[in-house]
Write a structure and sequence with these properties.
The chain is an alpha+beta fold. It has one domain: 2-Layer Sandwich (Alpha-Beta Plaits), CATH 3.30.70.20. The protein has two helices and seven strands; from the N terminus they run E-E-E-H-E-E-H-E-E. Strands 1-2-3-6-7 form a five-stranded antiparallel sheet. It has a two-stranded antiparallel ribbon with strand order 4-5.
Amino acid sequence: MSAEATDDREIVRVVGDLTITIDRFLCVGFGDCIDEAPEAFEFDGEDIAILTNPEKVDRECLLRACESCPVDAIIVKDAAGLTIVPQD
């Protein structure tokens, strides 16, 4: 089950026990997340990464894709609300 919320700045999606947030102001469209998990991410009409079908990608692949963002525009929190991506 997943839920998605959007506003002008952020896209938030719950995938299993993970909450994934894409900061649209930070994303500059490198596409590393898409390279890592093309089933989960794609570009929107503004060349900003969005989540498409992250449920179709295994957890480790999804986390690698989120970690691959060179500008830390993707934040992942676990069920306890602890940030696991980006790592310090």
